[in-house]
Amino acid sequence: MFLWGAATAAYQIEGAVSAGGRGPSVWDTFSHEPGRVRDGHTGDTACDHYHRWPEDVGLLAGLGVDSYRFSIAWPRVQPGGSGPANPAGLDFYDRLTDALLAEGIVPAATLFHWDLPQPLQDAGGWLSRDTAHRFADYTALVADRLADRIPMWITLNEPFVHMAFGYATGVHAPGQVLLTGALPAAHHQLLGHGLATAALRARGAERVLITNNCTPVRPASADPADLAAADAYDVLHNRLFNDPVLLGTYPGLDAYGAALDCVRDGDLELISAPLDGLGVNYYNPTRIAAPDAEAAALGLPFTDAGITGHPVTAFGWPVVPDGLHELLTGLKARYGDALPPVYVTENGCSQPDEPGPDGTVDDRERIAYLDGHIAAMERAAAEGVDVRGYYVWSLLDNFEWAEGYHQRFGLVHVDFATQRRTPKASYHWFREHIVRRRARR
C-alpha cells in the first residue's frame, strides 16, 4: 500500500515544554540563548499541539491521509536522558496513537528529531559514544509501550543536518562550531540507529527505517576541480549517511583530511542491519564548485555555488521538482538491490502565507510545488524505483528552528497568537489529490 501522509516534529509543534514532567532539550537551551533564533523566538508554545492534539488529529482525518509522521520527544519520555520512563510522557503518545488508529491513520513515529535531552548534551551529546546507548535504552522504553500499535518506526531524522548545523557550523542546537571535529556525531548517531533498530526488532516492530536528508549534487562545471569538489560534497552529505546503512562501509574522507577513528569492531554490522525502508527528505539539489578562499581557509574542499534559473521559496531555496526524480533514480543506480523501498518522508516549501480578507489562504505556489514534486516522484516510480510513500512537510505552520516562526511550511495556517488553525488551499488540493490517486488503484 502506498502511503500519502503529512509530517511534523515534536519540538516544532508541541509546546508545553514543562508540562507532564518533560525535561529540557538542547533546543530549549539553544532557543533561549540571545541571538540564536531569529527575533528570539522559542518553541515554548509552538502550535500548542500538546493540548490541541485532538483538533490536529481531526485535521488529519479531514485531509484524508493514510499516515501521519510525527516525532516522539525524548525529553518528554526520559526527562534526564536516562533511567525509567516518565509515565505522563508515554501517556501522551499513547493517546495520540490510539486516536490516529481510530481514524484509520497509520502512525509513523520518528524517535529522534533533534531534541536531545539537555543532560545528555552536558555529558558530550552525540560526540559521546554513550549517547548511542542511551538512545537505544530510550527506544526500548517507547517500543515497550507502543510497538504493538505503531507499525512504522523511523530511528533518526536527518543525521547529516543535525551533525552539520548542530556540531559543525553551530546554526542549530547545540550550537557547536567544530567543522570536521563534528564527524564523531555522524558515527554515533548511526550507531544509535543500529542499536535502536535492534531494540525495535526485539519488541516486534513491523517496519524500521532511517530518514536521511539527501540532495542530488551537481558540479558547477566540467572542470576537474569542480568535479572533485562535487564528489567531496556528495560524500559528506549523502554517502556518509547512506553507505554505512545500506552497504556496511564508510566512504573515504580523504578530501577532508579526516578519518572516523571512533568506529569500533562490530559497529558497522549494527548500523547496516536490514531495514524495511529508507526515508528520504528532499528539498532541492546542490551545485558545488571548487573551494574559494573562504572555504579553503576553513579546510573545506568545496564551495556551494548556488542553483540559479529557478523560482525560490520564501526560504530562498530553489524549486527544482526534477531534482527529486534525479535523486530517487540516482539512489537506485548507486545502491541497486541494496536499496530498500523508499519513502519520501519530507517534501514541501515555505511561502509567505497569510489569510486574505475572506479568511482563506490561497497558497497556489505551494500547490504548484507539490504537484510538480509528486509528478517527479511518480516518474521515478514508473522507471523502477520502489517508492512506497509521500509525506508533505508539514501539516501545520510551526517553529522552523533558527528561523523561529518566520517560515511557513504548513498545509494548515496557524495564527501563533490565537492558535487558530485555518486549512489553506493546498490542504484542500492535497485531499482531492489523494482521492484521485485512490480512484486509480
UniProtKB/TrEMBL annotation:
Documented EC number(s): 3.2.1.21
One GO cellular component term noted in the UniProt record for this chain: cytosol
Residues that hold substrate according to the record: 12, 113, 157, 283, 393, 400-401
Domain of life: Bacteria
PROSITE patterns: GLYCOSYL_HYDROL_F1_2
Gene3D superfamilies tied to this protein: Glycosidases
InterPro entries according to UniProt: GH, GH_1_N_CS, Glyco_hydro_1, Glyco_hydro_1_beta-glucosidase
A GO term, aspect molecular function: beta-glucosidase activity
Active site: residue positions: 158, 346
One annotated GO biological process: cellulose catabolic process
Reactions performed catalytically: Hydrolysis of terminal, non-reducing beta-D-glucosyl residues with release of beta-D-glucose
UniProt keyword ATP-binding present: no
Keywords: Carbohydrate metabolism, Cellulose degradation, Glycosidase, Hydrolase, Polysaccharide degradation
Family, similarity comment: Belongs to the glycosyl hydrolase 1 family.
UniProt protein name: Beta-glucosidase
Species in which this protein is naturally found: Planomonospora sphaerica
